[in-house]
Model the fold of this input.
Amino acid sequence: MRASELATLRFTGGYWLQLETINREQTIPANFRQCTASGRFAAWNFDYRRGQPNGPHIFWDSDIAKYLEAGACSLAKFPDPELERTIDELIDRLVRAQAPDGYFNSYFQQIRPLDRWSNLRGDHELYCAGHLFEAAVAYFYATGKRKFLDAMCRYADLLVRSFGPGPEQCKGYPGHEELELALVKLAAATGCRDYLELARFFVDQRGTEPNYFQLEAGGKPSPVEVFNDLAYFQAHRPVREQSEATGHAVRAVYLYTAMADLARETGDQELTAACHRLWRSITREKMYVTGGIGSTHFGEAFAAPFDLPNEEAYAETCAAIGLIFFAWRMFLLEKKGEYLDVLERALYNAAAAGTSVEGTRFFYVNPLACQPGATLANGRHPEPRPDWFGCSCCPPNVARLRASVGQYFYELDDNRLWINLYNDSRWESSWRDRPLTIEQRTAYPWQGRIELLLHDWPEELTLSLRIPGYARSYRLLRNGGELPHALVDGFAVASAPCRAGDRLTLELEFEPQLLVADPRVRQDCGRVAVARGPLLYCLEEEDNGPGLNTLTLDPESPLQLREAPGLPAGTVMIEGQGFREPPFEPDAPLYRPWRPETPAGAVLRFVPYALWGNRRFGEMLLWVRLRG
Amino acid sequence: MRASELATLRFTGGYWLQLETINREQTIPANFRQCTASGRFAAWNFDYRRGQPNGPHIFWDSDIAKYLEAGACSLAKFPDPELERTIDELIDRLVRAQAPDGYFNSYFQQIRPLDRWSNLRGDHELYCAGHLFEAAVAYFYATGKRKFLDAMCRYADLLVRSFGPGPEQCKGYPGHEELELALVKLAAATGCRDYLELARFFVDQRGTEPNYFQLEAGGKPSPVEVFNDLAYFQAHRPVREQSEATGHAVRAVYLYTAMADLARETGDQELTAACHRLWRSITREKMYVTGGIGSTHFGEAFAAPFDLPNEEAYAETCAAIGLIFFAWRMFLLEKKGEYLDVLERALYNAAAAGTSVEGTRFFYVNPLACQPGATLANGRHPEPRPDWFGCSCCPPNVARLRASVGQYFYELDDNRLWINLYNDSRWESSWRDRPLTIEQRTAYPWQGRIELLLHDWPEELTLSLRIPGYARSYRLLRNGGELPHALVDGFAVASAPCRAGDRLTLELEFEPQLLVADPRVRQDCGRVAVARGPLLYCLEEEDNGPGLNTLTLDPESPLQLREAPGLPAGTVMIEGQGFREPPFEPDAPLYRPWRPETPAGAVLRFVPYALWGNRRFGEMLLWVRLRG
Done:
C-alpha cells in the first residue's frame, strides 16, 4: 500500500500488535530520551558555542529525522497530542534555523559554516538531508500539516538548483546514499518531477569518470582507511555497470532501493537489469540465512561471495532494514514472491534480533553465533544489547520500521490485490472508490493458519495470496471448499472471483525445517539451521548449557514444539534429539589422539533467533552441527 | 648444550642440514639485503638528518641485532670472512656511536636524544638493548672477539647503575620484555652477577604497585588502544602472582623465558610455581596444535582460554619462536619430555611455516586455515609470504633460530646426557674432560627410526633418550638386543651402562595419527588434525581442489604415505579416504532444505603444515571435518 495509507491497517492482535505497542510505548520514547540525553535535540537549538560539550555531529540530524519519521508513522495510527507537540516543536526549531536559501544542517551551520558540501564523500550532509525529507513526507501523510514538508521542499529546491549536469552545478553525489530514495518519496508526495530527476542524476552520476570523490579529495588519502576504496561507496563504476554488491552494506542497499524506485518510475530497462544483478549478488552469495547482510566488520561491508562468518558476522541491523527496503522496491518493480520471501526473512530475523523484547536495548551487529569472552575483530568481546550507541543509526531505524511495517502487508494495482504478509489485522481501504475491507485472523508467525474475511470486496478485483517460499505445501479454502487458483511467482492467484463475505483459509505447511547452506559457504558446511515458518531458530546456553558446538543434531529425529521458558508468552521453542560430545578427562592435554566414542544423547532446544540474548547472556549458535 | 658450544654439533644430512644451508645461503643474506634496502643499516651511520627518508625507527636496532646474532651463530659453525667483515663493520659503527656512558640506540640518539627511557612502556628501547646483548654474546662465543661484548657490557653497566631499587634509580622495566633473558645470557657469558640481579629486578618489579607504566603515562590514555591494558604488557600484577598467559604473546613468552631462567639460576620456588602455572595456561588452554600461540590479531595477543580461531589465527612466527625459548628453559629447569614435546611441536610446525622453502619469504601470522578472498580481522585478505615487513621482527628471528637450533639437541648434566632431538648429525663434545662423540643417522622427521653411534662414551654417563609424547610405542635396541631402560618423564633412561662403540637403535611408532582438540575449543569440534611424528599436516587446494571444508575424513580408513608433488624431495604426503559434499545445483538458492544425501567418495591429500603456501596460493585447512 502507499506509505500515505498507514492508518488503513490496524493490527488487532498477535505478533505485530505486540511489537507495534512496544515500539510506541517503549522504543520511540527510548529514542526520545537518548536523543535528549546525548545532546542531539539540543543541537537543534542552534546555540552551540565552540568548546561546549555535546557538539553537534555530522550524523545527528539523521537520528533526529528517523525519530521524527517513527513518531510520524505512529501518529498516523495513534493520535498522541504530546508526541505531536514534541515533533511540532522540533520542526519549529528546524524551520527557525533553516538558512534563507533552504539549507539545513545542525552540524555544518554551527560547526563548519564555510564547508557546506565540501566533503560529500565523508560528511553525511546529503544523507542527513535525505532522512529529513523522509521524515517530512511521513509527517505530512500522518497529519496533513505542511510546515515540515514545505521547509524540506525549499531545501530540496536548493539541491535541485545546486546539483546537476549544468555548467554551474555540482557534479557530486551523496557519500552515504539515502537522499536518492528520499527524493523519490518527496516527488511522490509533492508531484514534483524535479526531485525525481535529481535522484536520477545522483544515481547516474555515481561512479562515473572523472570520479567526483577522487576530485573532491584532491588525491589525498583519507585517514579513514575504507574511505580510500571507491567500492566502499559503490562509486567504483557507474551503477548501471555494477553486478556485485560491494562496500558498506547500508549505503549499498539504500542506493539499490533508489535504483529500483527509479527503474519502476521510469521503466528504465538497463537500471532494472542492474537491480536484478545486485539482488542476485546479495541473495545468492552474500546474505545470511537470517536476512542479515554486510558480513564483515571491516567497513561494515559486504565481503567476498560466500564469505559469511557466523561469530564474526557484522550484519548491522540497519543493513537488514535497508534490505527490506530494497526487497520491497523490487517487489513493486516486479510482483514476485521471492522478493517478499527475503523481506520477510529479514523482517522476522536479522532486523528483529537487533531489539530487546522490552524494546529499549539494541544490537548494532547481529552475529549468528556468540561466545562470551571470545575476542572479536574489533578486539572487544560479545556483550548484551546496550541502550544506545555513539553512532546510533539502528535504534531509530528500528522504530520507524516497526511504526510503518503495515505498508508491506497489501499492494493494490489496477486489477489485483496482493496479500503479502500475515497477522491479526483489519484493513479498510478502497478500490476504484469502492470499499475494500479485509480482516486477517491468525497466530502467524507462530502458526501457519490464516483466515481472511473479505468483508468488502469488489468482485472484479483479482485476489493474490502470497505463498511463502518456505512452505513446502499449503491448502487454500474458500468457505470450506477449495478456492480455484494458480500458483504464479509465489502467489496463489484466485482464478474465480471472490465475493464480499467470503471466508478464505490459508493453511501453510509449518513443520520445523532443517536448512543447509550452499557448500561454498565454508562456515556452514556440515551444519543445519532450524527454521519454522519465517523464523530462524538458534541454540542458547540458557536452554542447552555451555559448549553449544559440542552438540550435534540428528536430522532424522522428530522436532517437537514446546513453550519457550522466559520468553514472551506464545513463543514457540523447538526440541530436537541429538548428541553431546563428552568433555575430556580432567587434566587431559589440549590435544589427544582421536578414538571412536559414543557421544551421549542430548535434547537440543531451539528458540527464535530474533529473541536471543534476552535472558542470561551466554553462548548462542544458529548453524548447529549435523550428526553425519 | 651451552649456547657457546654450537660448533660441536654438525648436521650431516636430512631436514636440518637442508634448513641450515638454506638459512645460511638464503635467509641470512635476505635479511642483509632487506636491512640494507630499508635503511636499517644506514641508521647505524648516525648521520640521519631530520626530513630525510628512512628515519631510524624504535625497533630497527632489534632487527639488526637479530641479524647479527644469526650471523654469529652461523659463523660459529661455518667460517665466512665476508660475513664476519660485515658484522665487524657494523660493530665498529655501533661502538663509534655508543655514548660515553655506554648508551646505544640509533633511534633515540638521532631522533629524540632528550627522551632516553622516557617511554619504557611503548618505545622498545630496552627491548633493542636486550637483542644487542644477545647478539654480542653470540658473537663472542662464535669468534672469541670481545669488542662487541665489551661495548654491550658498558651499556649493561649503565643499566645496572640506572635501574634498580635504589633511591636514585629508575623503577621501570621493559615495555617489550626481552632484555631480562638477554641479561641472563650476558651474566652467563661474563660471570657478572650484576646482570642477573638486574634481570631479577626487572622481573620482580613488573606489575607492582604503584604501576610504573601508569606513572610514566601520567594518567594519559595511549592512542594505541592495547597499550591502555596493563595485561597487554603482563604488568597488571606482579609476575609471581600471574596464572594466566595474557597480552602480547611475544612479550609474554620472552618474559616467561627469563622467569624460568631466574628460577633455575636462583632456585626460587615461587617463581618456579608461577612458571608452571603460566606454562600450563599456554599449553593446556591457549596453544594451537601447531605450537602457535597468541590467537588474536588484536594486540597480537593471547585470547581467552580455548578461544583458538583457525582462519583468524594470529599465531605470530616470533611467538612460536618465543615459546621454543620458554619450553627450553622449562626443560633446563626440570628435565621433562613434555617441555620438549612442545618445543618440537612449535619448531617443526608454527615456527617453520613462517618461512618459504627457498628461505626468502615470510609469514608474520600463521593461520590454521586459509581462504583467499576472505576478509580478515584487519580488513585485508590472505596473501602469499612477502619478502619483508615494515615491522620485520620475524625474518631475522627465524634466521637466528635456525642458525642456533643445534643447541637444543643435547643436554649434559653432572651424570646424565639428555638426547632431545633427532637428525643426521655428529656431535663432538666432552664430559669431565673425556671425549663424548655421538653420531645420529636418521631420516627424522620423515621416518621414526634413529641410529645412534656412541663413538666416544664415558661409561659412567647415564644415557637418556627422548621418547616423544606423540609416539604410542617405541623400541630401543643396543647392538641388536633390547637396551634395559626405564621410561621416566618422557625419556628412556638406560639402566645399564653404555659403552663406546655401541650402536643404539630407537624406533618410534610413526604411523599417521588423528588428533582431536579439547571440545572447549569450539572451533575444532567435530574435526581432526592429521599428524605424523612431530609434523602436523594440512589440506591444500593444490592437492584437493577448492572447497576444503566440504571434505570429510573417514577416521577408520587407512592413511597412506606418498611422495608430495611440488615440494622438497623427501616430503611425505599422507592420503586418507573420505567424502566430498556435492555442490548445489546451478542456480539453486543460497539456502535450501536439508535432505539425506550420499556424498561422493574422495581422496584427501595432506601435506606438512610447515610447507603450506609454497605452491599455488590457495585454500588451506588443518582441522578437517570428521565423517561422523
In short: Chain A has 16 helices and 23 strands. The CA atoms of residues 263 and 272 of chain A lie 5 Å apart.
